[in-house]
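Exercise 7. Predict the joint structure of the components listed below.
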Amino acid sequence: MELLMPGLGLIFWMTVSFGFVLLILKKYAWKPILNVLNKREKELAKSFSDAKRIEYEMSQLATIKTTKIAEAEKIHDQIIAKAKEEAEAIVIEARERAREEARIIAEKSDELIENYKKAAILELKNQLSALSMDIAEKIINEEFSDRERNARYVNKLLKSVAEN
Amino acid sequence: MHLGHLFMNPKALLIVFTTITISVFSVNDTIAGEQDNISEAENPEMKFDARKVIVDHVLDSYDWHLFDVGEREFSIHLPVILLYEGRLFIFSSKRFDHGYATYKGFRLAKEGPMKGRAIRVLDDGITPDVQASTIYDFSLTKNSAAVIVASALLCMLFISVGRKYREADIYATPTGLPLFFEPLILFVRDQIAILAIGPHKYKPFMPYLLTAFFFIFLNNLLGLVPFFPGGANVTGNISVTFVLAMFTFFTTHWYANKTYWQHMFNMPGVPMFLKFPIPILPVIEMVGALIKPFVLMIRLFANITAGHMVILSLTSLIFVLGSVSLLLGYAISPLTVIFLIFLNFLKILVAFLQAYIFTLFSAFFFGMAVPDPEH
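Solution:
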């Protein structure tokens, strides 16, 4: 029974001591400790969620990157194909044009050659006729210079005509 | 759910065991007492009263016994402070001479519910004065002194821990004292406060829960230390547990919200005749509110006292058997010591467990005091 008898003095001292400890520790221990613990946990949670978010964003970026690369490759291929096509077209056109020009040049040169030829032939004809005239003149002169021979030739001719 | 836990206490077994042990010793004591009546006169030292030793060790006292050297007893004589008939009496407990002397009409009661405390005696200096008016005893007893020592220790410890936290970088790995106490503080926060009160409401209760937890834990541990400044049965004293329970009670009702009070005085969804004109339900609710701290008080007191009693009983066993036969006393000693070592380990566990249970149930009561409003 004596165990269950509360003591007034002990109740008094206990209330005072415990109340004092409660107030002192609340201010000087629990508040700073819990603040630091809460802050640390908040920071850690924030860092963790940040890391998660960054990881997610990174994965997003990676998918974006691969799609972008694929797109770029596609565009690249397209550009190259187009360029090839265009180059071929240009080459073909150039060739066509060259051929045409060559043909035109050839035609013109043919014409020119023809003209020159004609001119040359004409010149040749002229010169030939002049030359033959000269020759003829000279021959005639030569022929008429030898009177004896001429007389003989005329005799011969007169003889043949007379025989006929 | 919570009340179920109160009775599922594994320490209940220990209490039963202790009760049996004590009653066995009491029987032995009375038998031995009758037989020894003759021999006691011849050789009073031969008598060993186990029950007296145990109860004296568990009870509070006016002086703090340190050790004995031969026949000489060394103790700290604490001040006795008595308020009697409007007069204040302050004197050293040395005046009582361990209950053998009367001082200014006060003497230590030898038996009864006031055993070991100052009572008024008649002029003959021995007979208790039954007609005397109440003595208001504010003495700084052994347990009071132990409470103050523990409080000082607690303040010193946690102020230094708190200072380290104030200075430290928040990401710094705790070292030294914080390294030891941080897991315990987190345990109280996560496994007691947040669990029992809820993550949004636990904050105002944290200082009390932490203080109560560490106060009980430290005092439980100090109670296991057999020499000064330990050895006082602080948490196994009904006054101490009463004050702790009262703190829980007042904290509960200080923070109690509207829903709690409505449930106490005007429980919604219950027929009116249960509340008016005879307030059956409010009375039941109020009794319930008082039983909660009462149970806290009794549980802590009984568990710690029971533990102390088991240890003391086992120690006494050596002397009880030794007084029968010296050989028997020696024979039983090794067995007792082995069992005592085991029990001390158990009591370290119990020291933690009881601090945890007291704090957890306090937290449950706080949680019940701040319910969410009815939907």
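Discussion. Confidence is low (pLDDT under 50) at residues 1-10, 12-44 of chain B.
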